[in-house]
Amino acid sequence: MKDIKVIGSVNIDIIMSSQKLPTTGETVKADKYYLYPGGKGANQAVAVSRTGVRPEFFGKLGNDYFAEIIINYLKKENIDIAIKYGQNTGIAMINVEASGRNMITVYPGSNGNMSIDDFPDVRIKNSIVLFQQEIPLKTIRDFITKLREDGNFIITDPSPYSADKYILENSDILTPNQTEAQLLAGCDINSIEDARKASEIIRGKYRNNVIIKLGSRGSLVNYNGEIKYFRAYAVKAVDTTGAGDCFNGAFASEFLRTGDVDKSVEFANIAAALSTTGYGAFPSFPYQNQVIRIQEGN
Ligand code: ADP
């Protein structure tokens, strides 16, 4: 494999932080305000880049003011961008109160009508390709059909949850979190042993490899039928938003470098744990040298 491509969603996240959330009809004053790119696709691309590999991101933005902000951010993050312009840029309006409770409204905008026809000249060969499910499933299926012939390695995060048989069967690794793994396997996961069983069910159903992300418990890998549990790197988590995206991006970077699943999961567990020690999604994603320092015990 020679490089990493990320195909998926990108939004502008508008975050307002107030002492207390408004109730219907109420107006409250925010004490802080942030504007960041978000969306699982863009998050994973940032995680790839920060952990040492310059990725190419395929997404769809609107012909509007937010698109310019997003492109500037992604360029600053050393991401190559293949963008198509459509209706309006996707927006997530996030209200957070001091207790941590939040209220989110998402407008998918152009993510919702991204299509393979938006990228007629796309030629991806011998790449690791990352998908998530915030763009139409048909678009993912069309990309996968095109990508499968050219020696690409497909990693799909089945999030938001949807069990599309074609996508699941034609990915090389699936990376559900605990909730998605429960839904895919049709059983509860309350222990590592349960996760092990769920991974076998998922592997049996979709004939592929699985990494189950287990939050503060770490992750469980079922690769080529060999099952291994990796405990989490212990941190004081303050906000787990984007931890799963950070995991996938960091995993892909280390996998490109080493081709070793175990090493890549260990690396991704540390990166994702570090991402929970700061607020927001990608602003808290760590860089490769921070992960290496921890691996080396400094
Ligand atoms: P998602 O964000 O997709 O719901 P998880 O919550 O399972 O996914 O988190 C993804 C990964 O982030 C985990 O596999 C683990 O490596 C790391 N992680 C998440 N929460 C914590 C935590 N509290 N402490 C340490 N690592 C964590």
In short:
This protein has helices at residues 40-50, 65-76, 137-148, 165-169, 178-185, 192-206, 243-258, 261-275, 288-295, and strands at 3-7, 11-18, 32-38, 56-62, 80-86, 90-97, 102-107, 127-131, 153-156, 173-174, 209-213, 219-223, 226-230. With 298 residues, it is an alpha/beta fold.
Please provide a written account of the structure:
With 298 residues, the protein is α/β, with parallel strands linked by helices. It has a single domain, classed as 3-Layer(aba) Sandwich (UDP-N-acetylmuramoyl-L-alanine:D-glutamate ligase). It has nine helices and 13 strands. The strands form two sheets. The protein has a nine-stranded mixed beta sheet, with helices on both faces. A four-stranded mixed beta sheet has the order 3-2-6-7. α5 crosses α6 and α8 packs across α9. It is globular, with a radius of gyration of 19 Å. The chain starts with a strand and ends with a helix. The chain binds adenosine-5'-diphosphate. Adenosine-5'-diphosphate binds next to α7 and α8.
Give the SSE map.
Layout: E1 3-7, E2 11-18, E3 32-38, H1 40-50, E4 56-62, H2 65-76, E5 80-86, E6 90-97, E7 102-107, E8 127-131, H3 137-148, E9 153-156, H4 165-169, E10 173-174, H5 178-185, H6 192-206, E11 209-213, E12 219-223, E13 226-230, H7 243-258, H8 261-275, H9 288-295
Parallel strand pairs: 1-4, 1-8, 2-6, 4-5, 8-9, 9-10, 10-11
Antiparallel strand pairs: 2-3, 6-7, 11-12, 12-13
Helix pairs in contact: 1-7, 5-6, 7-8, 8-9
